[in-house]
Amino acid sequence: MKRYCDSCRQYCDEAAMFCPKCGQYTTLVEVERIAPEGEIIYPLAHYQLSYKDTFLYVVGRKFIDANGRASRGEFFRFLLIWLLVMAGILAVFYGLTVGFNLGVYLIFLAWFLLITIGLLSLIPLLALCVRRLHDTDKSSALIFLFLIPLIGPLILFVFMCLKGKQEDNQYGEALRNIVIDKRLASIMKVSPTSSALMTQILVVLLVSAICIYGVSSSSMAPDNKTKLSGWLTNLIVGEGSEEAAQAAAQGYFDAVNEKDYDKAFTYVTSQGNTNPVEKQKWLESMKSAPKQITVGPLRWKQISFVNNRKRIICEADLQITKPGEGAVEASHMTRYISFLEEDGEWRIEGFYKEMPKIKKE
C-alpha cells in the first residue's frame, strides 16, 4: 500500500499522512511497490495476467484468500485452465485405455486424479468466486448458492459473468485491468498478457479433449470388456464368466428343446441333480417348457458369494417359438436366471419371474 498526493502527483510511504513536499493530505491507494525504473506496480489483481500466471496466482498466492476483488477475466482464465486439466486427464486416460486396451486400472487412476485435483482446487476456486462477487459489489454470502442443487450453481455462474463495478467499494479499489506488455513483464517478472490466439488455442484443446473422451467412452462396450462395469464384473467373477453363463443357459434350453433331459441336468447345480425332490421339480419344469426357447443376451443384475462360491443373477430375454396353424408364432418373456459356480463351471440354480431376493447360505 502507498499514499498518493493529488497536488504533487507523487506516491509516499504508507505511514505519510501528509505529503513531505507540499504538506497536502494524502490518500491511501493499492500500490504494491515502485520499481527502480519508476514504474508503479499495483497488486496482481489489477493486471490481465497470462493463463499460467493466473493459475499460479489463484492456487498459490490466493489459495485461501477471499479478501479483495477479482476481475471477470481472472475468473474465466482460471476456469478455462481448470477445465482443460480435468478434460485432458479424461481424454488421455480414456484414449489410452481404448487405443491399447490397457484395462480398468487407468480409468481408476484417472478418476482418482480427478477427485484429488477437484478437492484440492475447491478451496482456491471458492475463494476466487468470493472475490468475483466482491468485484460486482455483492455479498460473499451468495457463495452458498452452490449448495442448492442444479439451479444454485447456475445462478452463481451468472453472477460470475457480471461486469465488475468501475468504482471503489468496501472490498477494495476498482480494478484497472492493465495489459502487461513485454517491458512491464520484465519489470514484474511475469509473462505478458495472453493473446486472443492463445485463448482460441486453449478452447480448441478443451473441445478436442471433450470429444476424445466422449468418443472413447461411447466406444466402450461389454463385448470388448472396455466398459467399466464389464471390468468390475470380470474382476469379481473372473474373465470369461459372461460367455460361460450365456453358454450354460443356451445349452440347457437346447437340451430341453431336444427333450434330452439327462444332458439338461448337466447344466443344473449339484443340488438340483442329487436331491430327489429338487430333481423331480426340475424334471417337471423341463417337460412343461414350451416347444422351442432361445436365450437372448444376458444382462447381469447381481453378483454375490455363497459359501465361497460365486453367484450371479442375470436378466434374460427368452424367445419362445411354437408352430401355429399355417404359421410360426413367436413371443418373448423375461426371466431371471441364477447361476452358481461349481468346479470352475457356471451351473443354473433357478429361474424366476421377478428379481429374486436370495439369502446367503
Describe the overall structure.
It is a single chain. The chain starts with a strand and ends in a 9-residue tail after the last strand. Strand 4 and strand 5 form a beta hairpin. The strands form 4 sheets. Strands 8, 9, 10, 11 and 12 form a 5-stranded antiparallel β-sheet that branches. Strands 2-1-3 form a 3-stranded antiparallel β-sheet, with no helix packed on it. A two-stranded antiparallel ribbon has the order 4-5. Helix 1 (51-61) packs across helix 2, helix 2 packs antiparallel against helix 3 (105-135) and helix 2 (72-100) runs parallel beside helix 6 (196-218). It is α+β, with helices and mostly antiparallel strands. The protein is built from 11 helices and 12 strands. It is 45% helix and 19% strand. The longest helix is centred in the first third of the chain and has 31 residues, at 105-135.
